[in-house]
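Regression test attached.
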Amino acid sequence: MPAQLMDGTALARRLVEETTAAAADITRRTGTAPCLATVLVGEDPASVTYVRMKRNRCAKAGIGSRHIALPASTTTAELVATIADLSADPDVHGILMQHPAGPHIDERAAFEAIAPEKDVDGVTMHSFAAMGFGLPGFVSCTPGGIMRLLDAYDVGLAGKRAVVVGRSAILGRPVGMLLLAGDATVTYCHSRTADLPAIVREADIVVAAVGRPRLIRGEDIKPGAVVIDAGYNAGNVGDVDFDTARARAGLITPVPGGVGPMTIAVLLAQTVRAAAHQLGVQAR
Ligand code: NAP
């Protein structure tokens, strides 16, 4: 029997519906709509498209947005000052700085100018540490989306062997920490890992977060395993060889339509949660 698909599109739609209702409720009760500020440095076409998409999705959910487009020549100091202003602005509840900001920018300095209570993209050291300690805060959106998918499909984590392939600060590393918090036994793999297939073969849960088309082969998937493919490569191809993996897995995310839609849905949900907190209302 081929694996059951984990339908990220449907789950994201439900989360966005809940978020839309919560945004409307906040707006009705406070007279202020939740607002996300997006900051873009330069005109990289992919980044322009991502930011536009995020703003459109905000608008559909009843979340306002304020867009700050800065020239590619912007310095780190100017970018930090812009973000610090947004952090201090009571009309802005969440801040998203689109990555990459350019090779001459100290992105860490820019991210750290985001006030923790407005870090709805989960990129600051404060958010990362809070997640690591299991304290309240905002999680990085893609890992947050993956955890919601696992929860929606009743994937128990306790005692499971989870293998995370990839260790980036926004994806692999935090998703491993969240799986650990759920009592999974977590192994990280990366570009220097020896014999990746042997480690993948032991996994009850595989999270692929690399950016290499079909790196994970179906023959290495343990029968019945849960396969989460966060990879997104040219031609709508994931990091897992979908057809062969589906034949062995118990649950698997498609690409597209698995992890991808969850990322923006979590961003919107966290923006509304931030607004509720800052406006002093309980989100319903
Ligand atoms: P990244 O920063 O480039 O990190 C890639 C990770 O993969 C690194 O840790 C790297 O190891 C590891 N890696 C590279 N080659 C490997 C190999 N042959 N074997 C094992 N590990 C290897 O990428 P990212 O930002 O985490 O993104 C990863 C993928 O997820 C991309 O396809 C991206 O498009 C996708 N993504 C999707 C979403 C979404 O919303 N669905 C969001 C973010 C990212 P080292 O650390 O040793 O270099």
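Expected vs. actual: identical. Strands lie at 4-5, 35-41, 64-70, 94-97, 161-165, 185-189, 205-208, 226-229, 251-252.
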